[in-house]
Amino acid sequence: MNSTRPPDWAGAVWVGAIDESEIYASEPKAVLTLHRSTGYGTARLLVRAGARIRGFVDVPVREGGISFDLLRARIGALEPGSALTESVASPTFTVIICTRDRVDQLRDALRSVLQVDYPHFDVLVVDNASATMQTRDLIAREFSTDRVRFVSEPVAGLSRARNTGLRHATGEFVAYTDDDVQVDSYWLRALASGFARGSDVDCVCGLVPSGELRSEVQAYFDGRVSWSRNLDARHYSLATPPPALPLFPFSVGEFGTGANFAIRRIRGLRMGGFDTALGVGTPTGGGEDLDFFTRVLLTGRGLVVEPAAVVWHRHRDDLAALRYQARGYGIGLGAWLTKIALNPRTAVMAVRRSPGACRKLWDKRAIGSADEVPSESAPNSSAASVAFYDAIARVGRYEVACVLQGPWRYLRQKFSGAGLLPVGSRDSFADADAGVSAP
Q: What's the pTM value of the predicted model, to 2 decimals?
């Protein structure tokens, strides 16, 4: 992703991607020159072999470039990566981008989606309670094609916007992404591969690496989230709980995030869509993606993590923005935990998973903790770094405190009628309560 500003941190990391064929097929060079690398001391490259992801390598930047020999050596040390499962036919996708008053970012996101290497897809932009007509005008002026459609959802709330998109989608599968991303050219092909991994698969989550690491805040957040580095393809189901996830299926952050996932459209409709008592744009602030992933698993259906489905995301770049994000994460987590507790079946399941389940879930979502703050006497530390991590720890404590706001916000939203799911007639846990898969 093109950085809008120069790096403001001595440890800034230049981010890019490369296919290993470009390394081994080209003539050896002493240095591989990087575009716009001023101010960056390290380069992080996502290495792939065609559509298959091999992993990340970090290489020092010297005078605007990286050592070709060192790059080859580090790529050679990577694992082969998970092979894709090719589908017999190319199923149809509707790509849904929910947006609100961010036309500049939306423009770049749309351009990247339209360059995806896949034969059968259309794009639906859902304008969610925007204050102006700029989004509608952008689509009419710059993206007036049969492949791009526009629909307005006047009531604020990401779940409502996603449900509106689900109702208007035409593809067999619906792929959701955000307006502040750049999607990889193999994105839809890899999502299709995820669905081909099993007849039970109703949801596929992809990789969401940071497309920009020019600030210390971005780098810290990138290191805290698991969905930016899930490099192994996995197939999850309630019938075969993974031993490494003792809280499964209540595994916060292990599956993916709302910036990059796809669902089987007919199943999404039959599940009732997304819970409108959750999500950005509502008093609960988030949690609708985590809720949906969990509900898929609770119906007895499968969820696949497919790392080859890559969407680059620009993380918040300063402490004020990180604090705002932490607030949404905390409240959303508290709201979702309340929903789990209110349902007898899921409440019993959560209690059985671990006596300390709530604490572990909180710790998983917390952006910072006091234990990570270095002392000024620690090696390689400075007063500035201690101050930064102290600020990060305060953000982490604030996030945990915000979890406590989740229950009453969720109850207020739910019993005001906002929690009713407009896509279908079923309650959000109807299939899970019955203990059967949707037909």
A: 0.89
